[in-house]
Amino acid sequence: MSDRWRDRAECRGHPVGWWFPTNADYAWAKVLCDRCPVRLDCLIDSVSHDADDYGMFGGLTPGERWVWKNHYRKEQR
User: I need a labelling partner for 57 at 20 to 30 A (CA). Which of 23, 50, 68, 76 fits?
Assistant: First the structure.
């Protein structure tokens, strides 16, 4: 997958800390991710690189990605 989707990401140019908050407050990240045109690309990229422990990717927090990924695995069986 090409990284060209990153050029269209809603998060581009915003503080990185919004996606990696120390207090687990993902409010700003959620707002931007909800309207991002490449949200699914971001999510797929993060899951394919096992980015599960930290940060918001594809509009999902680490815990939400864990649930999504495990649900997807069950569906594939």
Answer: 76
The model's pTM is 0.80
**In contact, 24 and 17? CB cutoff 8 Å:** no
Beta bridge partners of 57: 60
Residue with tokens 């695995």: 73
What percentage of the chain reaches a pLDDT higher than 90?
A: 42
The residues facing 38 across adjacent strands are none
How many whole angstroms separate alpha carbon 23 and alpha carbon 58? Answer: 19
In angstroms, what CA-CA distances link 14 with 5, 32, 47, 70? 16, 10, 22, 30
Token pair 């864990």: residue = 66
Residue 18 token pair: 């919004």
